[in-house]
């Protein structure tokens, strides 16, 4: 009688006939495909991705099992933000150089990255309040509020706030990067300068302004976008640009909303480790509109 293929051999017995056959088949496939198996002196997958450094970067400070989830969640988010900044800054440069097809590709990728970050909250939400309470004392004052990459994302998206430079003052290297993002034109600033170059009536107050200041909504800017949206065939690439901005802010709003709900689910209304009111602060951020005229114009169509 042949043994069941789903039942392991008892201790002391050799592998079953089906297990031996499966092993032989697997080895034969690898040999037939000429897979590279010897990496002595060659760069491997782990070498290329620097996996030793990445996978040894998780250093829990508490004895609690769930701290690994908390660390991996935030480290992977930082990796996604690194890619987001890479694409977002390149998109801004492409728009400044009138290379819209290239910019569209990068902005679409940024929106997809935002979707990944939105779904990441689903994993962190599996951490219950008692589980988080067990690791919270070990976090001290560290908080995502202090993420320099996230701050650069916010600045690149146009949410400029001088107070947000201060958390990075203790690191001159990082402070210089955040400062440069603060002083540079945002994505939306470059979009409006592009509209101006295309002959649309965008006021100089919005194309030659102090980029460090928060963006002020403008009826004149809304009217310029309305020209585009009322004549999409004539201004197709600008119309597509407007919709890329809509996709991006839509995804960003979802990320902020999931952030609020996850924090409220895990810690309730306790103050955040970074000193903010936690949920109360995050709810205020829900009211921040990055590309205001892209939204208000829709009422006029």
Topology, element by element:
Blueprint lengths: L16 H16 L12 H5 L1 H5 L11 H30 L3 H25 L4 H11 L8 H9 L15 H12 L3 H11 L21 H12 L5 H32 L11 H7 L6 H9 L1
Helix pairs in contact: 4-5, 4-7, 4-9, 5-11, 7-8, 10-13, 11-12
Outline:
The chain is an all-alpha fold and 301 residues long. The protein has 13 helices and no strands.
Explain this structure.
By secondary structure, the protein is an all-alpha fold. The chain has 13 helices and no strands. The chain has helices spanning 17-32, 45-49, 51-55, 67-96, 100-124, 129-139, 148-156, 172-183, 187-197, 219-230, 236-267, 279-285, 292-300. Helix 4 (67-96) runs parallel beside helix 7 (148-156), helix 5 (100-124) packs parallel to helix 11 (236-267) and helix 10 (219-230) crosses helix 13 (292-300).
Principal-axes geometry comes out as globular
Tally the beta strands.
0
Mean pLDDT: 91
Largest sheet: none
Q: Order of helices and strands, N to C?
A: HHHHHHHHHHHHH
Overall helicity:
55-70%
Number of helices: 13
The termini sit apart by: 76 Å
Radius of gyration, CA atoms, in whole angstroms: 26 Å
Q: Give me the secondary-structure category.
A: mainly alpha
In terms of DSSP E residues, the strand content is under 5%
* Poorly predicted runs: none
Characteristics:
301 residues, 13 helices, mainly alpha, single chain
């Amino acid at each position: 009688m042949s043994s069941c293929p789903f039942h392991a051999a008892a201790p002391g017995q050799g592998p079953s006939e089906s297990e031996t056959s499966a092993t032989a088949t697997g080895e034969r496939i690898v040999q037939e495909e000429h897979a590279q198996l010897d990496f002595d002196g060659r760069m491997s997958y782990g070498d290329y991705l620097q996996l030793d450094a990445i996978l040894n970067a998780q250093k829990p400070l508490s004895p609690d099992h769930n701290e690994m989830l908390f660390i991996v969640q935030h480290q992977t988010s930082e990796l996604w933000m690194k890619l987001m900044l890479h694409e977002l800054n390149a998109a801004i440069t492409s728009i400044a150089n009138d290379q819209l097809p290239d910019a569209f590709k990068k902005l679409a990728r940024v929106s997809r990255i935002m979707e990944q970050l939105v779904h990441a909250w689903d994993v962190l939400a599996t951490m219950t309040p008692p589980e988080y309470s067990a690791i919270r004392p070990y976090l001290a004052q560290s908080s995502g509020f202090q993420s320099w990459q996230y701050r650069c994302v916010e600045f690149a998206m146009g949410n400029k706030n001088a107070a947000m430079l201060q958390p990075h003052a203790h690191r001159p290297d990082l402070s210089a990067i955040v400062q440069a993002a603060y002083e540079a034109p945002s994505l939306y600033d470059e979009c409006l300068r592009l509209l101006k170059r295309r002959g649309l009536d965008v006021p100089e107050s919005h194309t030659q302004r102090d980029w460090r200041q928060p963006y002020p909504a403008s009826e004149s800017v809304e009217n310029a976008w309305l020209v585009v949206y009322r004549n999409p065939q004539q201004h197709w690439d600008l119309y597509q640009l407007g919709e890329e901005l809509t996709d991006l802010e839509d995804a960003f709003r979802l990320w902020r909303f999931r952030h609020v709900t996850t924090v409220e689910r895990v810690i309730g209304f306790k103050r955040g480790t970074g000193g903010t009111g936690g949920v109360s602060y995050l709810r205020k951020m829900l009211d921040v509109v990055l590309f205001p005229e892209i939204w208000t114009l829709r009422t006029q169509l």
